[in-house]
Amino acid sequence: MKTMTASLALLWTLAAVSAGEAPETAASLLPCESASSAPTKPTTKEPAPSAPKNLRIIKGGDLEENDFPSGPNAGESTIDWPSGEALLESTGIHDYYVQLASRPDCVAAYSLRDQNQIEEYRRSRDKPPAVTYVWPNDPDPRRQDAAKIVVPDGKDSLPTQVWLPLNHAVRTPMLATWDVWFGKEWHFDHAGINNYKTWQFSSPGSTIHTEVRSRFGLAKGNPSVTAYTDIRPYGTSKGSIGPNAGEGAEFNGRNYGGEAIGPMVGEFGVAPERWTRFWLLVVPETDWYRMSLWAADSQRDPVQIYNGLQIKPKLRTDDGGIVSMDGTWGIFRLEYNTSSSAAWEGRGPLTAYFRNMVVLRATSVAGLLQRPAP
User: Fold this and answer.
1) What's phi and psi for 160, nearest 5 deg?
2) Domain that holds residue 76
3) Among candidates 163, 138, 60, which has minimal Cα distance to 103?
């Protein structure tokens, strides 16, 4: 059962957001961000503290998502939680993140604006870190209050990835959202990289499955677009895509190739040096999950790219065998990786930024499709 202390802490958070006072750093982690396992019930009841004053309480209907309670904020609540439609319009850079990471259906949250948090989930410990939080001392004049991602000069891919637990449970919905920024040097005409396995939703046992890709080559000759976005599913020969999905996609005459899942209902070209926000939604339905994807940036309203395609994640055993197609998505990888050699001589390093990933146990994006702040 949620304690009064936790409830008041959340009210203080919402009050700060409504007043435009969201924290600019992740020094004080939110409840959903500071824990990754189910809560333990207190053994003794704490005395009720005095109620804070001057709070803005947001009223709303019941959340459809609350049929699937989970995570450190799960359980009974004395608060009338807002529906998706009642989400406050974000004005500060991190307001949106604070609101989502404070919801009762939040199961994972990572600002990555904390070097200790980045180190906790960094891979390849024998190599120097390539994802760092150096704000505000970043020497790059384009510096952002976010995790800095650098692919070194002469390299094709990120040498040390960061893998974030998703805390997704079997046969439950999952809505993941994250913010990204690419320097203009990522453009194909400068870097020569054709495709990137940029963000990977992998199954337990590190079985790769749902890959949100950056198609730099499709933006060749167009300086206003860094890359177009699609999804590559793995394991299609083993039945991981359903009757309403297929291998291969195109939109408006642009051919995304046979490895992209289709059909697409829209397309989104990621603009250089502009914050872009993604939403990936998977909702269980009979034997499948329905997968949808949206994207927006600080100057463009959300665009839906995929709508309810039927997929299943793979589940791998310790010996590598596939024993079930009713698995989960276990890890989100900041992968930034290409399988081909593409480093052009004299290209220089490639800089990107990443911030504020949240995973909700939500069944829709109603009220949540907001542009990121610049």
Assistant:
1) -135, 110
2) 4-94
3) 60
Q: What is the 8-class DSSP label of residue 13?
A: H
What distance in Å separates the CA atoms of residue 182 and residue 177, rounded to the nearest whole number? 17
In a domain, 101, yes or no: no
Q: Give the chain's domain count.
A: 2
Distances (CA, A) of 326 to 6, 172, 288, 309, 323: 34, 11, 8, 16, 9
Question: Which CATH number is 146's domain given?
Answer: 2.60.120.200
Q: Which tens digits make up the pLDDT trace of 249-259?
A: 999 999 999 99
User: Which structure tokens are listed for 359?
Assistant: 């995973």
What is the spatial distance between Cα 246 and Cα 225, in angstroms, rounded to a whole number? 26
- Give DSSP secondary structure letters for 139-208: -STT--SSEEEEEPTT-SS-SS-EEEE--PPTT--EEEEEEEEE-GGGSHHHH----EEEEEEEEGGGEE
- 266-291 per-position pLDDT tens digit: 999 999 999 999 999 999 998 899 99
Tell me the per-residue pLDDT of 14-48, one tens digit each, with 9 for 90 and over. 344 334 443 344 445 677 985 433 323 333 333 33
Distances, alpha carbon 335 to alpha carbons 27, 43, 56, 305, 364, in Å: 25, 42, 40, 21, 26
Do residues 187 and 283 both lie within one domain?
Answer: yes
Residue 105 lies in a domain: no
Last residue of a domain, one of 94, 125, 145: 94
CB 363 within 8 A of CB 65: yes
Residue 106 included in any domain: no
Sign of the CA dihedral with 321 first, then 323, 324, and 330 last: negative
Please check whether residue 84 is in contact with residue 116, taking contact to mean a CB–CB distance below 8 angstroms: no
The DSSP line for 109-141 is: EE---SHHHHHHTB--TTS--SEE--TTS--ST
| Tokens describing residue 248 | 């291969």
Q: Return the structure tokens found at 120.
A: 């906790």
Residues 90 and 119 in one domain: no
Q: Please name which of 347, 351, 345 lies closest in space to residue 158, comparing C-alpha atoms.
A: 351
The Cα angle at residue 277 between residues 115 and 153, in degrees rounded to 5: 55
